[in-house]
Amino acid sequence: MSDLKELLAQRQQLETQLEAAFKEERLNVLDEIVRKMKLHRIAFDEIRGPIAQAQQSAQAAKTKAPAKYRDPVSGSEWSGRGKPPNWIKDEPDRSKFLIDA
């Protein structure tokens, strides 16, 4: 039974050493990356690449547009983008629903 306890203690000690070595190695790698980026004048945006930039653009496009029209009866608002709501869809003159800015 004491062999099991000794082995468990050794494993815990090795895991602690592994974690410390990994952290140290990680810092060394990060330092090397930053040094090479500076040397070659590489910006972080270049590393992210077009996929990250496309994701940022997609998130910017998802922002809600400000309301342009308001239903005087219900108070519902519509930005003028996308499918018109029922309260305005059949109106030929939508100017009476415009929100005064």
Description:
The protein is mainly α and 101 residues long. It has 2 domains: 1-63; 65-101, no CATH class. 59% of the residues lie in helices and 4% in strands. It has 3 helices and 2 strands. It has a two-stranded antiparallel sheet. A hairpin with a 6-residue loop joins β1 (69-70) and β2 (77-78). The protein is elongated.
Helix and strand topology:
Layout: H1 2-39, H2 44-61, E1 69-70, E2 77-78, H3 86-89
Antiparallel strand pairs: 1-2
Question: Could you name the key traits of this structure?
Answer:
single chain, 101 residues, mainly alpha, 2 domains, two-stranded antiparallel ribbon, 3 helices
- Per DSSP, what share of the residues sits in E-state strands of 2 or more residues? under 5%
Strand order of the largest sheet: 1-2
The major sheet is characterized as: 2 strands, antiparallel
Query: Structural class, judged by helices and strands?
Result: mainly alpha
Question: In whole angstroms, how far apart are the ends?
Answer: 81 Å
Order of helices and strands: HHEEH
Outline type: elongated
Q: Could you estimate the helical fraction of the residues in percent? A: 55-70%
Overall pLDDT level: 87
Q: Unreliable runs, pLDDT <50, ≥5 residues? A: none
